[in-house]
Design a protein that fits this description.
mainly alpha
């Protein structure tokens, strides 16, 4: 299963560049866009997909780790469903994609 191989939150860089200086982000080192891109590029495709889904939800792995078990499970279930939907959309036979340029 995809989600079981990507459940380690500590191995993930945040999808959002950390540039805030608010008290909530105190102790979080600012991350340049270049650093963010390098960290994102080092992720597996499954990790990138999960991080992107979390970002669409307005969440980070840290937010997820701070949730109570019941709320976290609901979010994990939503992530799982979104991953299934994206994988199904990307694996369906798409007509008209292949073009014969010699014709």
């Amino acid at each position: 299963m995809i989600t079981s191989s990507i459940s380690s939150a500590s191995a993930w860089p945040s999808l959002s560049p950390q540039t805030s200086t608010s008290p909530a982000s105190a102790g979080v080192q600012a991350q340049s866009p270049a650093d963010w891109l390098m960290n994102f590029a080092k992720m597996t495709p499954a990790q990138q997909m999960r991080a992107t889904i979390l970002a669409k939800m307005g969440l980070t792995e840290q937010d997820l780790a701070n949730m109570d078990a019941k709320t976290r499970q609901k979010v994990e279930d939503k992530i799982k469903e979104e991953i299934k939907r994206e994988v199904a959309n990307n694996t369906e036979k798409k007509t008209g994609v292949i073009v014969d340029l010699k014709a």
